[in-house]
Inverse folding.
């Protein structure tokens, strides 16, 4: 009954002190979650998102960075609730990847 | 279900955290379950995160308390001679009253 | 429920960071590919949500700006006022949210509990289950606050954790750790510097740092 995220009291090493930058995609993830959870929408709450990453399984949870967990959890719950579909998301991801690859190949001349 | 006008616990009540076997999203960590603490603050009524996590937003709102534990109660470490404490928020349905120490 | 995710996840393994102090618990950090992946995914999600009429791009831009605007300077403003205005301090300790809002700082959380350090009490804030932090006031928490090591160890060996931050508490000082697991969020009200009466408000505010407000400094 103990979730893998429920780690209070576990043994762990020294605390990693390096400060990490907060990247644009991470802010965008938080911003979108906040908007979707706001009073006018109430599409996905913080607790639904938490349930999302608590359901990943220990391996997936352990391999993702903090904001990636939130992004993946949000996607899982939105798909579960039929707000979006996996198919339409994958399609748009592929389009954006193509654009990115094309732009990257054109280089920074 | 009748609504309570006053909460079940007051400041300085001793309480035990229940070891509920709940699947799904809960906000009561493992390390305080089954432990005995002291109510130090009433926080008000909030929607139950266990319900919110599955999209149930209609309530009821649950009394929330801040409960204080002695470090020794939680970790049983006899080397800890200090008077350190841990405080955490516990929803009413996770709490059981304990006979007060006279 | 598993998601059929077509993306390659590059280097989502642990990254070890050596330090003069020895082995640190790993932080999972995205590498360049992971960050590009993250950007592509959130852009794709945003497109889908916009096409479904659930949000607009200007709303997202504004929401990002709102996330960027809070910061330690707001927490410092609250603390400096509490140090210099005893009646305000009393209100702050009694109802953190309303006292903070009183000075024009907006608070998105349900309630803010302000916990006061004294010569005999030191407070430390953590969230063992995830990363709860008073974001609408202080902005985003530091990486170490959401690290596995901090979350796991603060409730069990807080004095050792504080040692890693360069704080040694004598045993006469009572250490109270607050696990932000539910609807409250916490701010530490540190002790003022000895000569605070001689300091102007701007200098006082500048003397208050993020670590003071979380409790990993004293």
């Amino acid at each position: 009954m103990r979730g893998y995220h429920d780690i209070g009291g576990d043994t762990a090493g020294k605390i990693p002190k390096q400060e990490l930058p907060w990247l644009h995609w991470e802010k965008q993830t938080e911003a979108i979650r906040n908007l979707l959870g706001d009073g006018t929408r109430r599409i996905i709450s913080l607790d639904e998102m938490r349930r999302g990453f608590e359901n990943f399984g220990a391996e997936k949870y352990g391999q993702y960075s903090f904001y990636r967990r939130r992004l993946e959890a949000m996607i899982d719950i939105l798909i579960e609730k039929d707000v979006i579909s996996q198919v339409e998301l994958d399609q748009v991801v592929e389009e954006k990847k193509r654009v990115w690859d094309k732009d990257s190949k054109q280089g920074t001349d | 279900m009748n609504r309570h006008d006053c909460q079940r616990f007051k400041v300085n009540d001793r309480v035990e955290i229940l070891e509920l076997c709940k699947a799904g999203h809960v906000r009561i960590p493992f390390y305080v379950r089954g432990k005995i603490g002291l109510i130090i603050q009433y926080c008000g009524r909030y929607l139950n995160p266990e319900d919110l996590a599955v999209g149930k937003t209609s309530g009821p709102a649950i009394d929330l308390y801040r409960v204080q534990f002695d470090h020794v109660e939680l970790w049983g470490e006899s080397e800890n001679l200090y008077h350190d404490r841990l405080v955490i928020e516990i929803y009413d349905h996770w709490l059981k009253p304990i006979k007060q120490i006279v | 429920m598993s998601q059929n995710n077509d993306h390659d996840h590059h280097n989502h393994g642990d990254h070890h960071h050596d330090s003069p102090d020895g082995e640190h618990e790993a932080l999972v950090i995205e590498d360049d590919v992971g960050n590009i992946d993250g950007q592509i995914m959130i852009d794709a999600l945003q497109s889908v949500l916009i096409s479904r009429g659930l949000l607009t791009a200007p709303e997202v831009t504004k929401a990002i700006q709102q996330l960027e605007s809070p910061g330690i300077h707001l927490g410092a403003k609250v603390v400096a006022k509490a140090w210099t205005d005893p009646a305000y301090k009393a209100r702050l300790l009694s109802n953190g949210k309303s006292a903070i809002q009183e000075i024009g700082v907006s608070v998105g959380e349900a309630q803010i509990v302000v916990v006061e350090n004294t010569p005999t009490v030191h407070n430390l804030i953590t969230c063992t289950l995830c990363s709860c932090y008073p974001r609408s006031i202080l902005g985003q928490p530091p990486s170490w606050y959401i690290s596995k090591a901090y979350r796991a160890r603060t409730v069990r060996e807080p004095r050792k954790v504080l040692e890693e931050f360069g704080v040694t508490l004598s045993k006469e000082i009572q250490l109270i750790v607050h696990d932000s697991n539910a609807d409250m969020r916490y701010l530490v009200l540190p002790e003022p510097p000895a000569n605070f009466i001689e300091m102007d408000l701007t200098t006082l505010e500048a003397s208050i740092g993020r670590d003071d407000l979380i409790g990993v400094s004293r």
